[in-house]
Specification:
Elements lengths: L1 H21 L40 H14 L30 E4 L4 E4 L11 E4 L15 E5 L3 H10 L4 E4 L11 E5 L2
Antiparallel strand pairs: 1-2, 2-3, 3-4, 4-6, 5-6
Length: about 190
């Protein structure tokens, strides 16, 4: 007789435990505000990360913290985006996740002085090879500019010389000292 009674007590405790877990709602927020209302920004305009169950609970001892807590709980619930979060509270946000830089599509981009041809090799983690021609209209085909040069960006001069040879042009020199690329050095291949 003792065994079924203990099983019923365990089942009742589990049921109550699951019930309280599901009572937090879809946002996963728990606790109440200072008036006993749920600390859920979807249900309560006064919800704040500083109240019970919020990520700043027990840590808010200034007007700044309470103001930022109001925004933070809405950010965490997906109601507010990073764009509407006040700059004065931004320190509370997780670091943004940055994506790798992308380059414009292959093609010719011109200015009054020169043309810039970008060539894609499928590797978007470094600058694409490019070619300069001098008519400023993109009418001159790439690799034909007299006295021009073809720019490549690689990890070192040996790789640059090999890439210049791939396109059929001799390696000249590194020019990235004049241009701060912030990444790979830039080298020139001579166009005869």
């Amino acid at each position: 007789m003792k065994k079924p009674l203990s099983m019923m007590i365990i089942a009742l405790m589990l049921l109550l435990g699951f019930g309280s877990a599901f009572a937090t709602g879809p946002t996963g927020l728990i606790g109440t505000d200072d008036l006993g209302n749920p600390n859920d920004p979807n249900k309560n305009e006064r919800a704040n990360a500083c109240f019970e169950g919020g990520t700043m609970a027990g840590k808010c001892d200034s007007e700044w913290a309470w103001t930022c807590g109001w925004y933070l709980i809405r950010y965490e619930a997906g109601i507010f985006s990073r764009a509407v979060f006040p700059d004065t509270c931004a320190i509370l946000l997780p670091s943004p996740i940055w994506s790798a830089p992308t380059w414009p599509p292959a093609g010719c981009y011109y200015s009054p002085a020169y043309d810039l041809y970008l060539f894609w090799d499928g590797n978007q983690t470094q600058p694409p090879p490019l070619d300069l021609t001098w008519d400023g209209t993109c009418a001159t085909p790439p690799h034909t500019g007299v006295g021009g040069f073809f720019l490549v960006s690689t990890a070192n001069a040996t790789d640059a010389a090999a890439l210049c040879a791939t396109y059929g042009y001799p390696f000249i020199d590194e020019i990235s000292s004049a241009i701060d690329t912030g990444a790979w050095p830039i080298y020139r291949c001579q166009i005869p």
